[in-house]
Amino acid sequence: PVGGVSLRLCSTRVTLEGINKPVIDRIIRVDHAGEYGANRIYAGQMAVLGRSSVGPVIQQMWDQEKAHLKKFNELMVAYRVRPTVLLPFWNVTGFLLGAGSALLGKKGAMACTVAVEESISDHYNSQIRTLMEEDPEKYKELLQIIKQFRDDEWEHHDIGLEHDAEAAPAYAVLKTAIQLGCKAAIFLSERI
């Protein structure tokens, strides 16, 4: 466009002119960090439970998370957003959370999945509200992506419940602790 900056990445065309750059930067940065962390959680779970009966279920959810991360990697380039400086920390923390919950067994891993995916779904809903208030037409593509990923995360949440997450040892305490960690990670990754 005349006077605008356009980028072309794969089939995505992004016009940076007229967007609320601070809002979009914050959304893409934190979502990238979240999908990165989710990948590390599932990697940790697979390291412990990959050869168990629940391994294929975890792998299926992990494969979706890999696709989400790939998309946010593309969006970071297209929108010229820098990643959070906390990625090395999320790398280690995510893997330890995944492996640690899996050491509690299948139910522990699924409790972790329920806690994380519920937190992420709520966070995506908040972002959808923000973008709808900003300009639903201007952010149509980003809204579609976030809505799809939110639905995928909620599906993972439901899979966790179907696989006895609520029967994990100290489920309520575990879920609360993980969700507090998720809120802190979201807060920090949006800003740093």
Please provide a written account of the structure:
The protein has helices spanning 21-49, 55-78, 87-103, 106-134, 140-162, 171-191; strands at 6-9, 12-15. The protein is mainly alpha-helical. It has a single domain (21-190), classed as Ferritin. A two-stranded antiparallel ribbon has the order 1-2. Helix 4 (106-134) crosses helix 6. The radius of gyration is 17 Å and the shape is elongated.
Distance between the termini: 32 Å
Shape: elongated
Number of domains: 1
Going by helix content, strand content and strand pairing, the class is: mainly alpha
Give a count of the beta strands, DSSP E runs of length 2 or more: 2
CATH-defined topology: Ferritin
Helix and strand succession? EEHHHHHH
CATH architecture: Up-down Bundle
Mean pLDDT: 93
Unreliably modeled segments: 1-12
Instruction: Give the helix proportion (percent range).
Output: over 70%
Cα radius of gyration in angstroms: 17 Å
Strand line-up in the sheet with most strands: 1-2
Q: Count the DSSP helices.
A: 6
GO molecular function: 3-demethoxyubiquinol 3-hydroxylase activity; metal ion binding
Pathway: Cofactor biosynthesis; ubiquinone biosynthesis
Keywords: Iron, Membrane, Metal-binding, Monooxygenase, Oxidoreductase, Ubiquinone biosynthesis
InterPro entries: Ferritin-like_SF, Ubq_synth_Coq7
